């Protein structure tokens, strides 16, 4: 076992025993991330102030795991892909409502309500993506999401900001979301749908179609060359 694998095994072993201040300090030391450890038991994250997290219950353990996710991007270790990818996989199993195998998240992937995120197998999320999961986000199997995508699942009344509306976003199997796409609440991207770069999606995307534009409109059917599902041989990288 090489040193990186040993480090990942140590981190996973510590987390398996429960997450508290002492475990967080150990992991921060492992990844060489300086921090004033004496304030760890006082920290609050942005998620602590969200009504949806308070409703679901934002535990100390969940706060610490979310902190460990975000803090990696403040450390040079975020540049070490064969560490960072697997580190995030370890945390994702403890953060999200569910997370399948072979999950890959690049740098600076952010979210606000981890308990409302469900992720299937073989999902790739590229750097800079933001997931507002207050209303719930379900990502199916073999989905690819490009750089700087934004997913929103809630909005505020114009006459009273405290009045909120929550609507889930569902991205079905084998869908592809290209870079700088914005998806609004209540949208379903059906199986094998594709959203072109820089599009704003405010309505459902039909199965096996390509949409583009602001707002997005259907352009054509996906060019699958008679392949479907696993035959599409999606490989992320």
Automatic annotation (TrEMBL):
Keyword Transmembrane attributed: no
Keywords: Acyltransferase, Transferase
Gene3D superfamilies given in the database record: Hexapeptide repeat proteins (2.160.10.10)
Gene Ontology MF, one: acyltransferase activity
Family of the protein in this entry: Belongs to the transferase hexapeptide repeat family.
UniProt-recorded name of the protein: Acyltransferase
